[in-house]
């Protein structure tokens, strides 16, 4: 193993992450035979197989899984060291891997614009997915920081609150309840309701509130995107509860409105989270400080963020 090179570990890590020799070779600008040859040398040095092939797919063996974890630790340490060197030279340089829940996409990319302008040496990647998938990534320690509507209950994490995230009742602007004050929540339970998909943090908060009131929602449909839900509301399919941030870009369109319902808004907050044992990198700490500063200037959150603009070297993954 001592004769294995960092390059071999890099190739192994990319194959393990993609589950494919071809995609890993593409990412690293190698030919596939070169990647295969390096993995053969690494496997010979370890003396145990790292992958097994079933049909067309490759899977990590137990040894491969253990090596994948070791690789992450090695590369994280090397990245930290590089950041430390840059920081000592007075530069903020390195990678920031952010993963945010679906609803945070209404402000996180916009916040990144001014951040990237301020620190051009920081390369940011942003992963957007629903709460359940983001929690899986958090438990596997795949990213530097996570933005969530609520910290996980079953993982030891450090959580930093930086912004309010009110959930409001949305209806089409032609709805008969528009303009009424303090609408009882029981009225909303009777309305056809459009719900986010299972695994969504928004859904979790809505179900919690209606359960607390012993109310059952009149579910009309489930949709996996805030944008699709807003279109469905405008199309007259029902009402929904979403973060006020989701209005950032089309509040002005006037086809959607917020209803004044008792027990609303559901007062939530945005949290920046990382695993308890993980020491945030210099770049991650810089971003956290920036988050607080940017959020501190915000009065009307959705509108303020909607106004923010800026180019950012963003790599968006699925
Ligand atoms: P979601 O999460 O986008 O998965 O619904 C939002 C939240 O947790 O507030």
Strand content: 15-25%
- CATH domain class name of the largest domain: Alpha Beta
* Average of per-residue pLDDT values: 88
Can you tell me the overall shape?
Answer: elongated
The helix fraction, in percent, is: 40-55%
Cα distance spanning the termini: 34 Å
- SSE succession: HHHEEHEHEHEEHEHEHEEEHHE
Spatial extent as radius of gyration: 23 Å
Features:
alpha/beta, binds 2-phosphoglycolic acid, Arc Repressor Mutant, subunit A, 318 residues, two-stranded antiparallel ribbon, D-Maltodextrin-Binding Protein, domain 2
Question: How would you characterize the overall build of this protein?
Answer:
Helix 1 (6-18) crosses helix 4 (62-88) and helix 2 (21-27) packs across helix 3. The protein has helices at 6-18, 21-27, 32-46, 62-88, 108-118, 131-139, 185-190, 201-212, 226-234, 282-296, 301-307; strands at 51-54, 57-60, 94-101, 122-129, 145-148, 157-172, 192-196, 218-223, 240-243, 256-259, 266-275, 314-317. The two termini are 34 Å apart. It folds into 3 domains: 1-91, Arc Repressor Mutant, subunit A; 93-164 and 269-317, D-Maltodextrin-Binding Protein, domain 2, CATH 3.40.190; 167-259, Periplasmic binding protein-like II (D-Maltodextrin-Binding Protein, domain 2). Strand 7, helix 8 and strand 8 (218-223) form a beta-alpha-beta unit. Strands 3, 4, 5, 6, 9, 10, 11 and 12 form an 8-stranded mixed beta sheet that branches. The protein contains 11 helices and 12 strands. The protein is α/β, with parallel strands linked by helices. Bound molecules: 2-phosphoglycolic acid. 2-phosphoglycolic acid binds at residues 101-103, 130-131, 148-150, 165, 196, 200-202, 268.
